[in-house]
Amino acid sequence: MNRKRLLKTLDSLSSWLAYVGAAALFFMMILTTLDVAGRYLFNSPILGVFEMTEFLVLILIFSFLAYAQSNKAHVAVELLVAQFSDRVQVWIDLFNHTVCLFLMVLITWMGVRRALELMAVGGASPNLKVPAYPFVFFLAFGCAVMCIQYFADLVRLFASRNESDTL
pTM for the complete prediction? Predict the structure, then answer.
């Protein structure tokens, strides 16, 4: 499988996760609206809305990480870095992506460990008794896709560095 096809597959996976995040946001909006309407119009709020919202926020955040990275949509302050030469900027990006990749690998690893612990002890939400481990596995999956995105970005940076060295 060539590199372009792998990158396209990664972009498709990131986009699919973004749709999952958008659906989570939509359900969170509907749920909150129904809860507020039920509370103020019928004096009957929906049981467990806070817990469901927590799970949906987790899905929302970790489904958009890789998509934002693939579109370079994360917050970046380039005031100082823009003053350096292109070569130094590439080295800074290499360092930054390597550190971020390392941290995301740690978060993925710890997420899987935590999900396995929750699965073993039967950790669940207090009111609704929804098992927590699938959501922690989703956190780890979102972080793993982010790791793959950082790795792909590192490959691109090394390729661009090699091209600039040969010119």
Answer: 0.85
